[in-house]
Amino acid sequence: MERDVVVTGIGLVTALGETADSTWAGLLDERSGAGPITRFDPDEANVRANVACEIGTDPAADTSDDRIDDRTMGRYTQFAVAAAAEALEDAGFDPVDPAWTPERAGTSIGSGLAGLSEIEAAAGSRPSPSFLVRALTNLAAGHVSMAVGAKGPNRAPGTACSAGTHAIAAAADDIRRGRADVVIAGGTEASISPLGVGSFDSMRALSTRAADPAAASRPFDADRDGLVLAEGCGIVILESRDHARERDATPYAAVTGAGRSADAHHVTRPAESGDGLRRCIERALKDAGRDPAAVDHVNAHATSTPIGDAREAEALNTVFSETDVPPTTSVKGHLGHALGAAGAIEAAIVAQTIAEGTIPPTMNYETSDSDCDLPVVAEARAMDVDVAVSTSAGFGGTNGALVFEQP
């Protein structure tokens, strides 16, 4: 018998703030996390797009948490340990509490580029003894498991910009099938470096609105010209409903369905008509036992790229062809695109959307585009959301979707 899965804790590190509350407040206040790049000199690196969504603090230096150590942790791992600590506290967990059973607690944390900045810094010199443990993709999940003594299932999807969504989907499956009672799940990324930004810049995927960084990321807007790269982390505490009830925890939302698919089309361009993402959303709804008409809200992947946003709009219009597309938001106008962390950050925001009864706006959506014929939410909207879908898509044609519901 499959078990119900609920979200009982949220932790966020974003360009709007290093907590879930500060990020949520920034979304509703329509603040942008974008600004000129400060982590390196764009001119020296020959990068044209001098805009990114950076984290304003250094976790290792700006926290009293002695579990965060820059000698053994890359920047992306430090974000994960910080966000996991917030999420566990939010869920009411204490690793020394009897409710915390290490063998029944897992970790599932994805990343697209993981320790890219650590790899770049080490290039051309003899690596330090700690290089690998600061750079490897699985060390965010590994360090979080060690920090809290989680000895259950442990994984680290590396599926590009779907990694965080895939990590949460797999974690929910662990709980549904009884492999764990609690899983610390999400995604993390720290790719604001010459190689990280320069790679996307060379592909001409980045917005070039350096003169007005706050207006650069424009999901679904007719004047969008590319994405804004971001760093950050999103962690959710997933728990079986029975386990949460036993300790009187109050869930934000339930995770009732997940879908995964491949475009099998092109290494960077989405499939024609958004076919891969369309199949992914349909699978997630089928997994949840929900018809499209039941969905109240869509948190879209929409990265502010001309083709990507248009293909996603086609996918959504096909999925909801027999009913109206529900109110749709992309928070990347505020937060930029955090690659493998994006889906996890957005999953946390969807859980908070359900709990708060407020849909956050799509920042910088000013001019509608006939290629993106969607009911885009341009201003924060108070609304009861019973069922919501969150989407992700990544290079290689990898897609992910999650269905969240009232708990």
UniProtKB/TrEMBL annotation:
<protein>
    <submittedName>
        <fullName>3-oxoacyl-(Acyl-carrier-protein) synthase II</fullName>
        <ecNumber>2.3.1.41</ecNumber>
    </submittedName>
</protein>
<dbReference type="GO" id="GO:0004315">
    <property type="term" value="F:3-oxoacyl-[acyl-carrier-protein] synthase activity"/>
</dbReference>
<dbReference type="Pfam" id="PF00109">
    <property type="entry name" value="ketoacyl-synt"/>
</dbReference>
<keyword id="KW-0808">Transferase</keyword>
<dbReference type="InterPro" id="IPR014031">
    <property type="entry name" value="Ketoacyl_synth_C"/>
</dbReference>
<feature type="domain" description="Ketosynthase family 3 (KS3)">
    <location>
        <begin position="2"/>
        <end position="406"/>
    </location>
</feature>
<comment type="similarity">
    <text>Belongs to the thiolase-like superfamily. Beta-ketoacyl-ACP synthases family.</text>
</comment>
<dbReference type="InterPro" id="IPR020841">
    <property type="entry name" value="PKS_Beta-ketoAc_synthase_dom"/>
</dbReference>
<dbReference type="Pfam" id="PF02801">
    <property type="entry name" value="Ketoacyl-synt_C"/>
</dbReference>
<keyword id="KW-0414">Isoprene biosynthesis</keyword>
<keyword id="KW-0012">Acyltransferase</keyword>
<dbReference type="GO" id="GO:0008299">
    <property type="term" value="P:isoprenoid biosynthetic process"/>
</dbReference>
<dbReference type="GO" id="GO:0006633">
    <property type="term" value="P:fatty acid biosynthetic process"/>
</dbReference>
<dbReference type="InterPro" id="IPR014030">
    <property type="entry name" value="Ketoacyl_synth_N"/>
</dbReference>
<dbReference type="InterPro" id="IPR018201">
    <property type="entry name" value="Ketoacyl_synth_AS"/>
</dbReference>
<dbReference type="InterPro" id="IPR016039">
    <property type="entry name" value="Thiolase-like"/>
</dbReference>
<dbReference type="InterPro" id="IPR000794">
    <property type="entry name" value="Beta-ketoacyl_synthase"/>
</dbReference>
